[in-house]
Task: structure prediction
Amino acid sequence: MHISEGVLSAPVLASGAAVAAAGLAVGLKKLDYDRLPQVGILAAGFFVASLVHVPIGPTKAHLVLNGLLGLLLGWAAFPAIFVGLALQAVLFQYGGLTTLGVNTTSMALPAVVVYLLFSRLAQGQGRLAWVAGFGAGFLGILFSALMVSGALAASGEAFSSVARLVIVAHVPIMFVEGILTAVIVAFLGRVRPAMLGGASPGVSKEAGR
Amino acid sequence: MRRVAFLLIAALALAATPAWAHRVNVFAYVEGNQLKGEGYFPGGAKAEGCKVELVDQGGKVLAQTVTDKQGAFTLPKPKADPPLTLILYAGGGHRATYQLTAADLGVASGGSAPAAQAAAAGSPSAQATAGATATVDPAQVQAAVERALDRKLAPIRAMLARMEADRGIGVQDVVGGLGWILGLVGLAAWMRYRKQG
Result:
């Protein structure tokens, strides 16, 4: 899911960076600072998750957890994912510094979309929370794979073949993350429902803590 | 909740111990007149059917080929001035590079000077013994020795090149990253609460 240096064209890199900067600004503005530890813990989870490889299917893809981050953090997923990706680029040589903007966008934008789609549903009871969790985990990866394919296609690779490659490689991860996110959301719904509102004020306070 | 999150991260960190990177590696070495190399994914899978390009400093493509089923490829030994860069495209946004320095190519002043000395040192002795034995062309001897050395050293060169390309992810990288995140959270909290006074 991490795009390496030197693969993308300059306009794609620039627009990725612009979207990432805008997302970061919104994320930091909307951040409820009382929930800073939660953002930090989830950023750490995202950072480490990339080391967990799931050896199912044709290629070994790794966990991303962007659906989970989106559901729990809302717009604050942008700064959390940005920090996680920057550290992965520097310490693990995943992706690269020039592609940081594109990679942040392709993982954090789906996280926000998933938050907008599922955050109300995730606060529901019983089966609804499971459905929301699975949908968030599954679609988070699917949207990311589509965005990565789009970025590569915009840089000159044929969309159909790239998309097939990237999406097929991530199908196992979609299911793994769907189940993982559903388990975590269902658990949090019982233990700490206030966490499911996204790390911005308003929604979380409505939900009560 | 804090404890649960901590356990989750600890579990993820432990599960990560056979640290495979989601990236692709490439390395190459000179053997005789050929540049041999291999592309692979950390964890052992071979980078099969990937495009490989040899590029000079100016970004001009000097040669290109495609890896075979074992991820291996062979190019003619480049004549251009080092350093050269080898680029492997694994598709899906993954790309690896490997720097070929003068020493790797064995063409720099460091490589040719000892060879010239050896030839110079070799010729008087060869002439001295020429009377006793049959005539031996020092250039031929030197070429034969170089071929033999190349052959014998190839596996070691491959191993060294691979080690250089294959820096794994250590526990210190993971712990360091977590420390950075902790620090950033602390910094954000400090800035926030200092403002509130």
User: Anything to note?
Assistant: Residues 54 and 60 of chain A are 6 Å apart (CA to CA).
